[in-house]
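Async update (no meeting this week)

Hi team, since we skipped the sync, here's where things stand on the single-chain job. The sequence we agreed to prioritize is pasted below, unchanged from the tracker. I ran it this morning and attached the output directly underneath so nobody has to dig for it. Comments welcome in thread, and please keep replies under the output.
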Amino acid sequence: MLYADYFDPFNCECKAYGRLKQENREDLAIRAHGYLLLTPEQEAEVEKKATGVKDPEQASWNFWGRAPEHRYLPVRAILKDLIRPQDPFSPGHVSDMWSDLEDLHRLDIIVRDINVFNYLGGKMIDFSRAWTTPHPFPTAMASYGVKRARKSDPMNLHKALIEWGMERRWDWDVIPEELIKRAAGMGTNGRYGVNPSRYDWRKWEKDPAAADTFMEHQLFARIQNADQALEPDHQEASTAVEHSSQQSGS
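Output:
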């Protein structure tokens, strides 16, 4: 994978759901069954039904939001359980939601996008911003940055429960005391809770040493090489600007 691939929403979901499947913990989120690459015919049919325009080539706007250079790349879709419209969660879901989040961290999945709209029936529905090891950001970040990312998940879960429950006059006793403490930067399990870095992702690798080498050196070397490749262009541009300025001054 390239560095940018680790931040692609589709890849983020695939990595998170892959980890849940590896560990037989698909109960921690809405179940996913794989992915689809839409054919041009399927894509046109979806667009036609959504917009009413029979010929997508005649459409006056970009339905799929593609950049021009991505025009002919296939649309990717993750196939998940069909969930009927319902509330994101109810008081009876809260305890399980908190334990699910702790278990996700134990599997080294940091969600990074917990909000009211990321739940249906008390279950997580989206991992498009999740970090699942091996991932370059936790590898490159200072330990404090990783701790902040870990802390943000329970903070945002607590915020989502307050936002949804306030209008519905919930009894706040349904929110676990440990979650309240964690959101406030305290807690019996430390300020940051479960430490995802203790998860052994290398057990799934055919060659753990090679995987370590790639994550620690080769992945970031590609970025450095790309930056170095751009330097001559930057130097030429700077020289051209300087030369132009000298001519203007004379």
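Quick observations from my side:
Residues 232-250 have pLDDT under 50 and may be disordered.
The first strand starts at residue 32 and ends at 37.
Reply here if anything looks off.
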